[in-house]
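QA checklist item 7 of 12: single-chain prediction sanity check.
[x] sequence parsed
[x] length recorded as 386
[x] structure emitted
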Amino acid sequence: MKFETKAIHVGEEPNLKPGGSGDVAQPIHLATTFAREKVDHPTGGYEYIRSGNPTRNALEKRFAALESAEYGLAFTSGLAAETTLFLSLLQSGDHVVAFDDLYGGSRRLLDRVFQKNFSVSVSFVDARNPLNVKNAIRPETRLIWLETPTNPLMKLCDIRAISDIARESKIPVTVDNTFMSSYFQNPLPLGADIVFHSTTKYMNGHSDSLGGAVMLNDDSLYQKIKFTQNAAGAVLSPFDSYLVLRGLKTLAVRMKQHQENSIQIAEFLNDHPGVRQVNYPGLSSHPQHQLARTQMSGFGGMLSFELDGDIDRAKKFVESTRYFALAESLGGVESLIEVPSLMTHSSVSPEDRRNIGLSDSLIRLSVGIENAADLIEDLERAFKKI
């Protein structure tokens, strides 16, 4: 099956056997416990909702298929998925190498929870150069955590090159694939060991379900993460599983429209005198445009730009749009706008923001699937107001 077909059919094959209902859409199984005839033989393999649920299992099966993986796991949020991963793979005294430009919540989790409370040390490096990752590896390094493209500066790292480096030291590489979704990028065939998604974003696509996902091939790693998922209990609810199953059916067509709109908006901003810099890997001016063309099949719907002005000017700009809603999150069908230094990355210290190049006047756009001309007119309106 090609991607578009997998996104619709995997996990939702109609049960046409005698007694089957023939549902073409996976039902929402709300039962929290499952009866059995024999003490040691759970009926259908289900015992308790935390350990397994038919709706969630259908989604996890589709997650795996879309990332060319053997296994998929669904969690209550992206951060719950990250926390479960870290609890499964790390212990006190271990070390993590991470991209220095990360989603603020990921950096906060590593910095303020696992470093502070679990004595896990973290080295944040500019992973655009694979040698920086290699030089940061220590004997106690147990995980490499990457985003590509990064949030919010749209920096890329070479997944294959870094995975080759990590393999020499037998260190698993995890790639946060949220920005690209499974449609535009598949890190596992490039050598990564684990793929992570905040399914709240593109995978669901409608701003109405909180969730996270992990996909991988390695049986040993899967068993560790699966055990912690069940033991810690941060599993996705049946209703949210249903919403993401439904959202995935249109992922391919949504991502194509997100990208088409983003290219037009990036070009508009790139030519605007009120903009210092546009960060979008689909622009030939992006310093890693060729890498994007090599390891991604598209450029996605996320971009950021640095406004010519200070933070007050940036605040006025984002408060002046009509169709771009001033809100955090991303990946929904509707367009969103935000100031990372005041919103999604406010938990990152001003010094760390300066070190990675995140200015106070940086604005991040999650470009939706509305008409591109309307969106450009909306941005032009904001430029005129400032």
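[x] summary fact logged: The longest helix spans residues 251-270.
[ ] second reviewer sign-off
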